[in-house]
Amino acid sequence: MTLGSEDDQARFRSVVLPHLADAYALARWLTGDRADAEDVVQEACLRAFRGIGGFAGVNSRAWVLTIVRHAAYTWLGKNRSSALVMVDDLEAVERQQASGGTPSQAAPETPEAALIAKTDAARLEAAIAELPVPFRETLVLRDVQGLDYREIAEVTKVPIGTVMSRLARARQRLVASIGTDKS
Amino acid sequence: MSPPSSPADPVLLVHAYLDGELDPAHALEIERQLAADPALAAEHKRIVALRSLIQEKLPREAPPANLLRRIEAAIGAPQAPTRFASLSSHPISSHPTWRALAASVLLALFLGSGSTWLILRPAPAPTSTTADLVLASHLRALMAPQPIDVASSDRHTVKPWFNGRIPEAPRVVDLTNDGFALVGGRIDVIGRVPVPTLVYRIRQHLISLTAVPASDAATLGTARRAIAGYNTLGWTDNGVAYWAVSDVAAPDLDAFAKAFRLGTPEP
Question: Could you list the residue range(s) of the whole structural domain that residue A26 is in?
């Protein structure tokens, strides 16, 4: 690999590095492991560095997170393909629910807000980690990293309507999971 | 944002409402439905509880210190003693052209508006004061299709919206009983720093309230200025400089500031 010009390195510093913490957090939530997250972020940064000339300069955070997500998926496919197998099934279920179901009757046994507030950090973290990847990444991008719907749609490459339904479902699953766990 | 064209699912819209993604008309519609539908209101409560749980309890890890070194080594960059803290600038600050554009639009509008007061006034000092910058943001916001980025009269929606966008969400106070309705919030850029601005309404007038981290808190007492027909009022509380700007009369702005300072931010 040829090293980039000093311009590229300066650009990389101003465009990519400010989002290193977000990049690492997303990679950790997607891989579920700190060391793996570091490898994913390093790989993503290399890709970002090579592609820095192609960055159009609008939303650097969404651009960086898109690359991190892509690197994480490549990594998951190579090292833990079972984590991704269910994505297709899930999409089918999602479509079915979207076309037929009445969403307001979902989650029959939902805990009260007061119970949710009492959940401890470890239980919350485990419940998020248990979410299927598409739900998990949507929830993390929104509720942990604070992206808006348009940015999430850009990063995860789905329409905004899908972002909305995934986010609602991810939150409902989390709430249900918190409510059923008595430990 | 408009909801998707398919039959609007009120549950999804409640989520979008809480995420500050609805335009004012849809936000009002959802607020009406929330008042009428207990099941929907329960969903609203659960989302609020879940989001504050995530905000409060989920550990936020900084990337390991050696990750930055690994990356710099990988791209062949010289090892610079950079700290993460110094890197966390807002993306907006790297786009000076946008600010220049906004400023020139503003200037063009002033010059084209046929007002003569601008020409008679002395040229603004090269370093604009915070009051000038806050007023410029207020005027810019009034010209935009809507003066806010997040529309909600619920402070539990407005405050979390700022999380993740700026380092510290502002104090949001419910002033409905004082006659000032919360309209929403937006992010302004004051001297290259993104800062939170709350927007309140009294009668037909909007008040922008911008919270600027005060580096020299002691220097600002209460600063009152009338600029170009607008009143600005600045004060400092707990290391934050607040700037209120509006076209309401000075006594109204004083009443607003007083109510905001006395108001309790928590329910």
Answer: 6-79
